[in-house]
Amino acid sequence: MRTAFGQQFDVPDGYLNTASIGTPSVAVAEAVERAVREWRTGAGRADEFDESVALARRGFAALIGAETDRVAIGAAVSPLIGLVAASVPDGSRVLVAAGEFTSVSFPFAAQAGRGVTVTELPLDEVGSRAADFDVVAVSVVQSADGRIVDLEALRRARASGTRVVLDVTQAAGWMPLDLGWADAVAGAGYKWLLSPRGVAWMAVRPEWELVPHAAGWYAGADPWDSIYGLPLRLAGDARSLDTSPVWFGHVGAAVALPWLASLDLTAVRSHSVGLADSFRSGLGLEPAGSAIVSVQQPDALRRLSDAGLVVAGRAGGARLSFHLYNTEADVEAALDALCRTSRS
């Protein structure tokens, strides 16, 4: 058992895979376990999950620097970004980063029948070229290797008329964010936000009127009054984009997100990035300022896995991710696995 930032985590030594699956705190896991027990014994009530949905929604808004009434809920990032992609005008020109996570790029590429074109450019060119496009859609932190997009360049591009769509799945939770200026900001909960899979959110600026293509009962102005019959009576804010909540996912997120939002995220970033850069230094690499490290050494994934560390294989390399529950011992174990094997 580890203690980090005031919470306990039953995370094993050498777990460096938060970028794939975040490990919940004991408090998060216990909240979900209680909800499952109530379900199993017939004690659960559908309307009792509304509070969890609201708490998690507020937590996400706080983590990205947006107003709560701008945040819609979903089960994954791609359907949320799909609402954005389906709402861009015919013939829109969209810019994405080369090698971008496809939950960001595929929804726009699927609009090709309407004349929507998608251009890939290297990440370090996205900021400087964004103003040449109608929409730029990009992850704040790249999933494959942890590189960070130039947010200030994107903000300048937005001032010139470009719509900016951001995915914060690999950033929110360890990186302080102030993204209220962006047109749409989406993120999934099961990685750095330490929540169950099946919860995601998207903040949308009110002047961007997206069509609620997936509107259902939970998108209603009063969800419990919109479960039968017409007329259409949707919420007047971003809740009109809601889809029916994955209950147990929101139960966990209602504990995890408010707690994360209450932390000094500058300290969380310092801790997580400090470990990642310490690992990079041990490999002779320059600091990168990201909590994700991609190792391109031959057999790195096999070496780390054989040593009992949990990492991921991504884009031809071994991907390690350092979160608030990791320690210097995890860094040393990873370096020992790579360097000892290299020497032998």
From TrEMBL:
SUPFAM superfamilies: PLP-dependent transferases (SSF53383). Keywords: Aminotransferase, Transferase. The keyword Transferase applies. Pfam families: Aminotran_5. Residues 44-284 form the Aminotransferase class V domain. InterPro entries: Aminotrans_V_dom (IPR000192), PyrdxlP-dep_Trfase (IPR015424), PyrdxlP-dep_Trfase_major (IPR015421), PyrdxlP-dep_Trfase_small (IPR015422). The keyword Metal-binding does not apply. One of its GO terms (molecular function) is transaminase activity. It comes from the Bacteria. PANTHER family: CYSTEINE DESULFURASE, PYRIDOXAL PHOSPHATE (PLP)-DEPENDENT ASPARTATE AMINOTRANSFERASE SUPERFAMILY. This is Aminotransferase class V-fold PLP-dependent enzyme. It comes from Pseudonocardia hispaniensis.
